[in-house]
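Exam prep: given the inputs below (a chain plus MRU), describe the expected output before reading on.
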Amino acid sequence: MSLPAVETLRWEGGVDGTLHLLDQTLLPGEVRFRACRDANSLWDALKRLQVRGAPAIGVAVGYGVVLGARSEGPRDASGAASAAERAAAYLESARPTAVNLAWAARRVARAARGAASRGSDAASVLDASLSEARAIHREDVESCSAIGRHGAPLIPDGGGVLTHCNAGALATTGIGTALGVLYAASEAGKRFEVFADETRPLLQGARLTAWELSRSGIPVTVLCDNMAPSLLRSGRIGCCVVGADRIARNGDTANKIGTYGVALAARAHRVPFYVAAPMSTIDPSCPDGPSIPIESRAPEEVTRPFGVEAAPRGVGVYNPAFDVTPHDLIDAIIADRGVLRPPYAESIARVLAGRPA
Ligand code: MRU
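Solution:
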């Protein structure tokens, strides 16, 4: 097995450069990049899920603030910082649930404002924004590897591991979060088979997780979402590992719709359920699950999936993109700073304060 050679996105050039995104809506059929040269084009790519997965969204948006900041023509330092702040607010409106988006947007806008307040000119404000975006990118790669290192010992040697959605290399700019743990466990010599929920309605599990795992040589089996409870009852699954889009201070975790059902079935059959995520996915301002904003998506994703008429036109549709798994169903949160255990209100407060997990 090898670590995944997947390039989710790249920035080419200096402050006048271009953001290239692997268009994930075309996978597994076609590998094609979309070039974004302004914030509008990135907003559109985010909305369509051409770039998706909380950490990858954060990295893309970091660069997106640079795209927005430079687009308004010649200005002074303060004008450039204001353009960065406007771009950040605009990009934040693309998707509400993954906190990495707002976290990265605000971080780059803050760097722009900081450079302006030091009296720099507009060019230095753009330079400061780009170096902050690059730092977010570097940190994402590093935190995926750290998550892998911390989580690998939790993966049983032999048997199956169940995952939901795609929390892999495609959802990050490194080796992934949930799948990062599996890549690291495999590198450490453990042998296991991954069961990937297909993840209705947009099939991130079938299209993306199965694609990247099969490229890396880890055995993978796809199942429809409604088959997970019986698979968990069968005794073939040693643990479940999923990613996260936002983790509240008490450990309640928003992730792709369907995750909550997997956690309930895992608890019923006494299978450990783990969440893997970087610190940037923990939202210190969010007390609990009910406070997490949940994105609602277009009805056509359910009634006409991939262009196929699957339900009568005009029927009501319930299509939340995420659900919240309550903290008491989560056996551990595998973060880049270590493995957090319940009670999460305490372990999360500890790592947020910079102390060891
Ligand atoms: O709608 P998506 O595809 O952006 O949702 C992605 C997920 O829910 C992932 O599981 C989550 O972002 C974790 S990614 C490391």
